[in-house]
Design a protein that fits this description.
The structure holds two protein chains of two kinds. Chain A is α/β, with parallel strands linked by helices. Chain A has helices at residues 29-36, 51-60, 125-136, 157-160, 162-170, 188-191, 209-215, 222-235, 252-266, 284-293, 316-333, 346-353, 360-369, 372-378; strands at 18-22, 42-46, 66-70, 77-79, 93-95, 98-99, 119-122, 143-146, 176-182, 201-206, 238-246, 272-279, 281-282, 304-306, 312-314, 339-341. In chain A, 36% of the residues lie in helices and 19% in strands. In chain A, the strands form three sheets. Chain A has an eight-stranded mixed sheet with strand order 4-5-8-9-10-11-12-16, with helices on both faces. In chain A, strands 2-1-3-7-6 form a five-stranded mixed sheet, with no helix packed on it. Chain A is globular and about 55 Å long. By secondary structure, chain B is of the alpha+beta class. Chain B has four domains: 1-106, Conserved hypothetical protein from pyrococcus furiosus pfu- 392566-001, ParB domain (Alpha-Beta Complex), CATH 3.90.1530; 107-149; 157-250; 264-318, no CATH class. Chain B has 15 helices and six strands. Chain B has a four-stranded mixed sheet. The N and C termini of chain B lie far apart (77 Å). The chains are: A alpha/beta, B alpha+beta.
Chain lengths: 379, 321
């Protein structure tokens, strides 16, 4: 096993030079704390943002160097937007605390969805925790909750110090497991956390080194992510890994083989709670946005067909090749590690694993069972 | 206080080359020409004094029809027309007047939208542009639509004419906006040889662009190869051959699966009148069986054929490749 110090995350650190503060968000402890960490940033107080005003502000302030602090007025806990029943979804729950990130992956599907140009942090955390309190008191229900769907869970942690706040909550929660998903290595808040971390899962999105270099902006390298994962494991966190999106390109086998080998240079199979795999997919309209924003990328120029959910996906024979290869490679090192597909059909499950979840509930149940806390809830 | 005066001016006093108000581009409507030929100019165009004569604010198409008519009849360009002349009106005010008057009577083509947007972006503040002009032009506030307008404004005349005529759509512009002059010329040649228009053209360009990106070559390479493949009689290019060839190049696995599926049906002597289709693009697991009949006898015959197929053969034919 390789061991190393905490990776330097300064390359991907978000350093806003302007902070837009919604007038109602001023005075919140998280607002104060973030502003105190940015003494040189220009602070502009704005009225409650609307899509119109955000577009205008987007002309005035650079989306790369501006942070928006706002209140979230809708539900914080949402079901992961898994699509049609024809593709199996793990029924993950999203804790919606922020929007956007500064990493700049070419394949990011958010570029086709968000009408807010700014990286946004919601500061009314007490409202989020109050909602969680109400939701989590339902008896006998187990929750897997993540914060990394509409943003990266850790990239802004040096500014927000959010991870320790979440650990305070989920460390003592009996029926919920928190998963923090990232491509960043800003893990100091996790490593230095003095309290009970519960069964918190820290996950990294992984890809081939070539994809990381060409398509993942200024994300941490694969080596850095895995070094961070090993350190988190030493601290007692459970580690999740997500190969999503898998890309099909010339030489993909060698490239993905390198990443798999690298995983097990840093981690043992038992360290890993789950590994998810999902081939690249996107809504058709995202293709145009992606090309406008990343003119050099060629990732949408593959053999994409229209899936049953309307998304563009690699033709099934290509997905089958990608999955079979990756699963075989992983199983060589860790035969017992739990691997699942994110949004894939039962036929590809069957072809790859020899079994398939009969529905979303069954897949969800399989993931729940990976968590120690699940048996405590059910016993 | 602004003023609009009705007066008479000769065609030679009008600066037709001025494009400060670029509200019309493309072929003049036949109905308008007919109307003016029969009835004359009923509604006076709006002009404003400029350095080289009157600038046309609204009514360029009407004036061009009159000018064409004058040229056709070999009339002197000093032919007088009734016009409205605006005075003491700011450039934004004139521009708005032209925009809303045009919108009241017609839709703009893609070239007009692009030209108006580009001109407006020089005249109006960002807020006015985004809150008034872009919604009026039905132009979404996304980067690619602005890039599209910039590209169209810089396109050569031949491409702009095709766009104005509706033979090329906006998505195709997005694809070719980064292409070199040489690549665009080759595409225009292909358009001329094949008669490709709009949806099929977009599909072809999209596939050429995908192939070029996938193989990291110029679009000229797949374009030349596909053109060569699809050359039919004389110098014409067969559109269906072209599309099919590009699809085969871009979708080798899918094409192989389709061929394999057809071969398996043949191998297991699948009854010809029972139409068996795989799931669209082989996605999901639902196969479709259909047959037609005109009588109970035909129905019975088809059912007999169907039940005579061995289950193992069905499994084999429908096996995922």
């Amino acid at each position: 096993m390789k061991s190393a110090g905490v990776p330097d995350y300064s390359r991907s650190l978000f350093r806003p030079n302007t902070v837009l503060v919604e007038d109602d968000a001023a005075g919140y402890p998280l607002t104060e704390s973030i502003l105190s960490r940015l003494p040189n940033a220009e602070v502009v107080v704005i009225k409650r943002p609307t899509s119109e005003s955000l577009t205008l502000l987007g002309r005035q302030f650079s989306s790369r160097t501006t942070l928006l602090l706002a209140l979230h007025r809708g539900r914080f806990l949402k079901a992961c937007p898994g699509t049609a029943e024809s593709y199996r979804c793990c029924l993950y729950q999203i804790l919606h605390l922020g929007l956007g990130c500064n990493i700049g992956c070419s394949y990011c599907v958010l570029q086709g969805y968000l009408n807010n140009p700014f990286i946004t942090q919601f500061v009314n955390l007490d409202d989020a925790f109050a909602e969680l309190d109400r939701e989590l008191e339902r008896p006998g229900v187990f929750y897997r909750i993540g914060t990394g769907e509409f943003t990266d869970s850790l990239f802004m942690d040096p500014l927000t110090d959010l991870a320790p706040r979440l650990l305070d909550y989920f460390g003592r929660s009996k029926n919920a497991v928190l998963e923090l998903k990232s491509k960043s290595v800003a893990i100091s808040g996790l490593l230095d956390y003095p309290g009970e971390i519960g069964e918190t899962v820290v996950s990294w999105s992984l890809n081939a080194p070539q994809v990381c270099a060409k398509e993942e902006g200024h994300a941490a390298t694969i080596e850095e992510r895995l070094t961070a994962a090993a350190l988190c494991r030493q601290r007692g966190y459970r580690i999740g890994l997500h190969f999503d999106p898998l890309l099909y390109f010339s030489g993909w086998q060698d490239e993905y083989r390198k990443t798999v080998a690298s995983i097990f240079d840093h981690l043992k199979g038992d360290d890993i709670i789950w590994i998810s795999i999902g081939a690249f997919r996107f809504m058709p309209q995202v293709k145009e946005e992606l090309r406008a924003n990343h003119p050099q990328t060629n990732i949408t120029a593959g053999e994409f067909i229209r899936g049953i959910d309307g998304k563009q996906r690699y033709f099934s024979a290509i997905r089958r090749q990608l999955y079979s290869f990756l699963v075989t490679e992983i199983k060589r090192y860790a035969p017992n590690v739990f691997i699942y597909f994110c949004m894939e059909d039962q036929y590809l499950w069957q072809d790859t694993f020899g079994f398939a979840p009969s529905d979303n509930q069954e897949l969800s149940h399989w993931l729940d069972k990976c968590c120690y806390r699940y048996s405590e809830v059910k016993s | 206080m602004y003023d609009i005066k009705i007066s008479s001016c000769s065609l030679s006093d009008i600066d037709f080359a001025d494009r400060t108000f670029p509200f019309s581009y493309g072929v003049l409507p036949v109905a308008l020409a007919t109307s003016i030929a029969k009835l004359g100019l009923l509604q006076p165009p709006l002009l404003v004094a400029g350095e080289n004569g009157y600038r046309i604010v609204c009514g360029r198409r009407r004036l061009e029809v009159v000018r064409n008519e004058a040229t056709r009849k070999v009339t002197d360009e000093s032919l007088a027309v009734n016009v409205c002349v605006a005075e003491n009106m700011s450039l934004p005010e004139l521009f708005r007047r032209a925009l809303w008057e045009n919108l009241a009577i017609r839709e703009f083509n893609l070239v007009e939208v692009a030209d108006i947007y580009m001109a407006a972006s020089e005249i109006f503040r960002v807020e006015e542009l985004e809150q008034e002009i872009m919604p009026a032009l039905k132009l979404p506030r996304r980067k690619r639509f602005q890039q599209r307008c910039q590209a169209i404004a810089g396109f050569p005349r031949q491409l702009r004419d095709l766009l104005a005529a509706g033979s090329i759509d906006g998505e195709t512009v997005d694809l070719i906006r980064e292409w070199s002059v040489e690549e665009r010329v080759a595409l225009l040649d292909l358009v001329a040889e094949s008669g490709l228009r709009r949806n099929k053209l977009r599909e072809v360009v999209s596939r050429l662009d995908d192939l070029a990106r996938r193989d990291q070559v110029s679009p000229l390479k797949p374009l030349s190869a596909a053109r060569k493949f699809a050359l039919g009689e004389g110098d014409s290019v067969n559109v269906e051959w072209l599309r099919s060839h590009l699809k085969t190049l871009l979708y080798p696995h899918l094409t192989a699966a389709q061929l394999e599926f057809a071969a398996r049906q043949e191998k297991f002597a699948w009854p010809a009148n029972l139409r068996l289709e795989p799931p669209p693009d082989f996605e999901g697991g639902k196969f479709r069986l259909s047959f037609t009949f005109t009588s109970s006898k035909e129905w019975e015959k088809s059912c007999d054929k169907l039940t005579s197929v061995a289950l193992e053969d069905i499994d084999e034919i429908c096996r995922r490749s």
